[in-house]
What we know:
By secondary structure, the protein is an alpha+beta fold. The protein folds into two domains: about 10-150, no CATH class; about 155-220 and about 250-360, no CATH class. It contains 13 helices and 13 strands. Strand 12 (about 325-330) and strand 13 (about 335) form a beta hairpin. The longest helix is centred in the middle third of the chain and has 19 residues, at about 195-215. Zinc ion (ZN) binds near residues 33 and 307.
Amino acid sequence: MLKISASPLLLLLFGLAGCSEPSTSKLQSLRVSNDMVISRLTADQETTFVAARPELQGDCVSHIEQVTCFSQSEDPGFDADCSFKAVKPELFQNLSKVIAELPPLHQKVFCHLDRLQIQPGLSTIGYASQIVNEKHEPIGTMIGFREDALKGQNLKADLESWKEQLNFGFSDPKDPSYKISDQGPKVEQPIPQAEQAFVLYVLTHEISHLVDFMNNANKQSWTESSDQLIWTAQPDSFSMLSWPPVLTYDKDMQKNPPEWVAASPWLSQLCYYGCNQVIAPVHMLDVYQALQASSFFTAYSANSPYEDFAEASSAFLLKPLGFAYRVVGPQQITFFDLEVSWKGKQLEAKRKWLLDFYNRSDLQYKY
Ligand SMILES: [Zn+2]
């Protein structure tokens, strides 16, 4: 068995994704979670990227304008052909309001972003990416956003409910009209004191992924055998508050780790964008009852320790703006209410962990 620590994990993961040594023309992106990607640049691309990287000089909005480009790619990850010429000023109309509403550390991360990649045809609403060089050393941060979502357009569609209903087969990941069913769960996620609630939530979530990667909130080591990858969490890892300390993955990472299935038979079935096997609607109540009894802030948290940290951070940090989260079933039955968990014992340890974490003065906000 080969022992691997956090940084060479990237090496392992890139190997896992079937990527061979990098070609000089093609960069490699690896999804480590639904909307968290590691983008690996070639040596030439690294040189270009580092040379073109603007420093923040005072004004956050003009910095973001400088680092924003348009990509035709539908996939998450750094696009070497992203165009810096096609940026339209109206894209930034609401941005200063959103920036002002971001939690302090998240504001710093966002204002030091190395790239904001706008992708009109993106397959998810947004994603975060750590940019690494050929040696797998982190060199930058990036966020990708679907154009309509960033502009606040097309939001008449209930994207959160559409995403939730993917789990039960009520909605279709390829449906451009984001149709939902009255028979499926609906997500209510208001932030009454925010002007740009939806964009604020998505940005806070994506930036939380970057905060996690820059500061090792989820602290793990990986060991590799011929057909398995084993995640072992360190005792002070955020993941230890909800996940088994050891998670054994098959190398294709298609199946849930058996430790997670045993610990959480209902929540481990939540699958979102990657549903090969949806949950029978008759079991909706079982799933959300398990969620209410769990130490998760939202249903999406149960997807991976990375999503757990991003969702918990977002709920925790946006709570002062009135953030609430409910899942409501047919006939307006409340399936899950974050407020109930918040007042109960379930979230106590995580809230304490997050409070201590975000009170640290040494947290990294850029590479
Ligand atoms: Zn995420």
